[in-house]
Amino acid sequence: MWWSQRETDAAQRVQTAVSEKQRQHPGPLALSLHAPQDWPEILSPQDVAGLLRIATGTVARWCETGQIEAVRVGRRWRIPPQAVWPLVPPSIRAGWPDGPWKQQEDQEEEGRPDRG
Q: Percent of the chain, pLDDT > 70?
């Protein structure tokens, strides 16, 4: 299979981030919906399933069907935290101070036309 340079570069960036994540957190990660600032740059389906308290298979299916932004590296899926943030219950998102995901969400809303 021939990959474009863009796909190859993206895969290398993801692999580098995964390697760094493993060095920083050699054991299982204890992630919390209430502390997204502590989330790593790249999440695995297991990380996302643990955060949202759903089955890992559900997250893998979302990755395969494109329901959540994800990159496949070899046989494994890698998910950016920004893709998970909209799935966090609004009551938790509202309580978190302005951060990178909230700012991104605000910018997206500004660009949307009014539905009125």
A: 63
Gap between the Cα atoms of 21 and 15, Å rounded: 10
Residue 34 neighbours by CB under 8 Å, 6+ apart: 92, 95, 96
- In a domain? residue 79: yes
Q: Structure pTM?
A: 0.60
Give the DSSP per-residue string, 12-48: HHHHHHHHHHHHH--S-----TT-GGGS-SSB-HHHH
Contact of 57 with 77, CB cutoff 8 Å? no
Per-residue CA distances from 18 to 22, 71, 83 (Å)? 6, 12, 17
CATH number reported for the structural domain that contains residue 83 in this entry: 1.10.10
Query: How far, CA to CA in Å, does 76 sit from each of 35, 47, 96?
Result: 25, 13, 30
What total number of domains does the chain contain? 1
Q: Write out pLDDT tens, residues 23-80.
A: 555 445 578 877 787 888 899 999 999 999 999 999 999 999 999 999 999 999 999 9
